[in-house]
Amino acid sequence: MVEAFAGIVAAATAYGVGRLRAVATTALREASNSDVLVERLHSKLGIELEIIDSSEEARLYFEALRALAKRDKRKLPGVTALIDVGGGSTCLSLIRAGKLAHSVDEHFGTLRLSSEFRDLKDSIDYAITIDRSSHGTVRMMLGRLPEAKVETLVVNGPDIRRLLALLAPDAKGLIEPLPAAAVESFFQRMRNLTPRARAEACGCDVHQASLLLPAASFIRHLCGELGRDKVLVPQLTLRDGLIADMVPGAHGPHHLDHETLLAEAWQLVAKYGGNLEYAGNTASLAVQIFDQSRELHGLGVRDRGLLEFSALVHDIGSFINVRNRHKHTQYIINSADIPGLTREEKEMVGHIARYHRRSPPQSHHIAFRALSRHARVVVSHLAAILRLAYGLDVERTQRIRRVRCEVARGKLLLHVDRRQIALERWSIAGKAQMFQEVFGLEVVVVPREEA
Questions:
Q1: pLDDT for res 313
Q2: Are residues 216 and 266 in the same domain?
Q3: Quick one: which of 122, 123, 121, 87 has its CA closest to 211?
């Protein structure tokens, strides 16, 4: 592999390429010696090989599809399922109105499935077992989707594209339909053939032919379960997502635009049965306080986005247990696939949400201490602000929707458009200590003045 990378570096240098980004996916995520390979590439070639997680992989495929659809003058309205079937894993993303709302990595791949049942390759049981396993995967995958009617199926992957080229040789567009009937007919013709006969029929070697069978089985069951007569097959790879990150104006690695990132937060709230109005109002109050206290915290636009995301999802842990919901929210965030956040940013969001109530960060909180110093400071600032927003909607009725902040005489004054605020004052009094420790200001809720 080092020799292969050396050849790539030499070719890139010859073409005058000044910037390289090298990423690895499932194979190295699961390899026991991945650290050794990464270090060897760095020491011998100076290449920083990044083993990306499944959420970054989903984001790259989304960016690639978005760029391809733009070139093809095609829009993806409504709800689109983007499924990339790789050799070792399958990445499923849900796109709502052009925004990435949900993604999950499934332990299914054409090479993985073919390898698992290679001992059956000379038996009729091979095709039957491949088909049954694919069917189970499709049912599990669709069962995990958030409640939404999928209007467009986009299925990608090297073996899917080979299947399209074999069954629709005249399909030369950027995004082409692959009819379910053609896939069904192909599968029925191939299932009883020997490996060599299957390869001859497909015009490829035995290995490649063995991968087309699980690809076809996956599509036939996907269309069958959803009642669709076709899938759309795009001509894109992960490489196209990497290129999309490098064009002028792109957000770059691990980033999505603000609205798309928030769409994922809203999806999490809905998935875990959260109160959407309460979550939205808490987030609104949090960013209002953030925007009006910039001179105190000095944080930037990206930090504002992390606060808004954290504020939206802060209560989703109630799905597991109400008493310790702040801790369960952190667990859910850490366990979820969230494209558009770096690994550290996801940990920061988890901590901001975790510290919206109860104990502030403590010296014995190992996960918090493991963050970089800068991240710990940002978390402390944002969690302190979130506590105030949380405290202002103690009734969860959105009674207070607007707040005006003023710093005067060593205090942060929160002016609200309500006269009766005894409950809010009591609530803030129990939640403002962290803000006072971080910013050195007492917090006071100020009622609306009488006309």
A1: 98
A2: no
A3: 87
128: burial class by Cβ within 10 Å (0-12, 13-18, 19+)? middle
88-109 pLDDT tens trace: 999 999 999 999 999 999 999 9
- The answer to whether position 251 is within a domain reads no
DSSP lists the bridge partners of residue 100 as: 95
Closest CA to 79 of 142, 148, 147: 148
CA distance 267 to 284: 17
| Tens of pLDDT, residues 33-90 | 999 999 999 999 999 999 999 999 999 999 999 999 999 999 888 899 999 999 999 9
* Distance, C-alpha 38 to centroid of its chain: 24
The two three-digit tokens of residue 447, written as one number: 């009622």
* Three-state secondary structure call for residue 434: helix
Token pair belonging to 190: 């191939």
Structure tokens of 50?
A: 């990044």
Residues 355 and 220 placed together within one structural domain of the fold: no
Structure confidence at residue 322 (pLDDT): 95
Assign 450 a pLDDT band (cuts: 50, 70, 90): low
Q: Tokens 């199926």: give the residue.
A: 153
Query: Where does the pLDDT of residue 451 fall: very low under 50, low under 70, confident under 90, or very high at 90 and above?
Result: very low
Domain of 77, CATH number, reads 3.30.420.150
Within a domain: residue 422?
yes
In a shared domain, residues 220 and 272: no
Cβ atoms < 10 Å from Cβ of 117: 18
337 and 206 share one domain: no
3 state SS of 443: strand
Give yes or no for a contact between 21 and 253, defined as CB atoms under 8 angstroms apart. Answer: yes
> Has residue 253 been placed in a domain?
no
Among 246, 269, 298, give the residue marking a domain's end: 246
The CATH number assigned to the domain holding 335 equals 1.10.3210.10
Q: Is the residue at 347 inside a domain?
A: yes
25, 89 contact by CB (below 8 A) = yes
Domain that holds residue 10: 2-51
Q: Same domain, yes or no, for 58 and 32?
A: no
pTM: predicted TM-score of the whole model, two decimal places: 0.88
Name which of 339, 268, 344, 345 is nearest 60 in CA terms: 339
Query: How many domains, in total, are found in the chain?
Result: 3
Reported as a single tens digit per residue, the pLDDT across 144-201 is 888 678 999 999 999 999 999 999 999 999 999 999 999 999 999 999 999 999 999 9
CA distances from 417 to 260, 402, 403 (A): 32, 7, 7
